[in-house]
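quick q for whoever's on today - can somebody do inverse folding on this one?? i tried earlier but teh output was garbage lol. tokens:
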């Protein structure tokens, strides 16, 4: 019981000392985002941090001794080191090192701080450095080049951040690295690379993004690739979109259907018609519009008839309302009479939808 109480007391002391360290650093080095006039020198703070590390290490050794294990770095001792204590101590040392860098950064100009953070061993500080330099990156090639180097960072979060910021900056000099990131092991980084290539209008990457659409394992990455290729309306992407009609993701299939109609992919019309005839699912409207643009108006005629019947006879007011909305999208001019009838519907929501269709 005595040992347990002592262990609890030491653990509490360790926590208190860490909190005191934070309070000391914040009190001495930060005042509403601006360094205090009376900041100590970086060397002074470093010495203080070293002293705190010593005390934290001493407490760790005391805890380890109470547990009956050899502690890390205990003077005059050899043998195995307690893995738990070593891990905790390493984490504390890393946190103190990061805090030291933050305190030192408060005395630096923002740009100097940004470049300094890029060299940090801490991934979050490197991400902060990217954000700092991105603020001037549009007008500073040196800042963009520094961010560009982090596209190969070991941390996926840093690579993702660098990709996003360079995309926002439309840094065309990073296009080659962005293309390479389409094969990155991290899906978020791959997605940012697709978005970055789109932002810089790198249409020479259509083939690479098409491969991403066809083969990437992540649904969101494929959806992003499909959206980018659709916006570019490039006939080169026709084959990729045709393959994407069988994608497991509803969102990817939706983009592919719409895109094939928009780029005039006549060769895809039989595949689209087959989907419409067999099971259009949630893509009925997209299929009808795509087939209409490709010269097949039979599905359009079927849908106008089906929707007209729904407006007239369906018991559910929400179904009637949606039918009016879809008729307005497919055949507004040809459906004026049915809109006039729907304007007398007993349901206020159906009447409102019909009035909107008549006014447009």
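ok took a stab at it. sequence:
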């Amino acid at each position: 019981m005595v040992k347990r109480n002592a262990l609890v007391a030491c653990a509490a002391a360790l926590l208190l000392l860490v909190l005191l360290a934070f309070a000391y650093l914040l009190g001495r080095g930060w005042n509403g985002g601006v360094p205090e006039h009376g900041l100590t020198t970086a060397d002074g703070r470093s010495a203080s941090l070293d002293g705190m590390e010593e005390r934290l290490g001493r407490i760790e050794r005391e805890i380890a001794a109470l547990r009956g294990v050899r502690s890390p770095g205990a003077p005059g001792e050899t043998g195995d080191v307690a893995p738990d204590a070593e891990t905790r101590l390493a984490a504390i040392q890393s946190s103190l090192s990061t805090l030291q860098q933050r305190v030192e950064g408060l005395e630096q100009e923002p740009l100097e701080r940004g470049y300094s953070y890029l060299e940090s061993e801490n991934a979050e500080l490197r991400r902060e450095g990217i954000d700092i330099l991105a603020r001037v990156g549009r007008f500073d090639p040196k800042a963009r080049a520094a961010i560009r180097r982090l596209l190969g960072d070991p941390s996926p979060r840093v690579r993702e951040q660098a990709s996003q910021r360079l995309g926002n900056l439309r840094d065309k000099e990073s296009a080659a690295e962005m293309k390479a990131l389409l094969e990155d092991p991290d899906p978020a980084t791959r997605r940012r690379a697709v978005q970055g290539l789109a932002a810089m209008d790198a249409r020479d990457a259509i083939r690479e993004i098409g491969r991403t659409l066809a083969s990437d394992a992540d649904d969101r990455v494929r959806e992003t690739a499909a959206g980018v290729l659709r916006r570019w309306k490039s006939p080169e992407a026709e084959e990729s979109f045709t393959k994407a009609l069988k994608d497991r993701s509803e969102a990817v299939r939706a983009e592919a259907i719409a895109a094939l109609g928009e780029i005039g992919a006549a060769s895809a019309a039989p595949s689209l018609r087959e989907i419409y005839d067999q099971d259009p699912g949630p893509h009925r409207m997209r299929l009808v519009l795509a087939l209409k643009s490709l010269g097949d108006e039979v599905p359009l005629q079927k849908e106008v008839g089906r929707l007209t019947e729904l407006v007239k006879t369906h018991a559910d007011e929400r179904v009637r309302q949606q039918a009016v909305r879809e008729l307005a999208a497919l055949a507004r001019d040809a459906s004026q009479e049915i809109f006039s009838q729907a304007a007398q519907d007993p349901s206020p929501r159906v009447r409102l939808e019909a009035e909107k269709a008549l006014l447009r």
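fwiw The chain has four domains: 1-27+42-107, 115-201, 221-296, 299-359. also The longest helix spans residues 2-29. so keep that in mind when u check it
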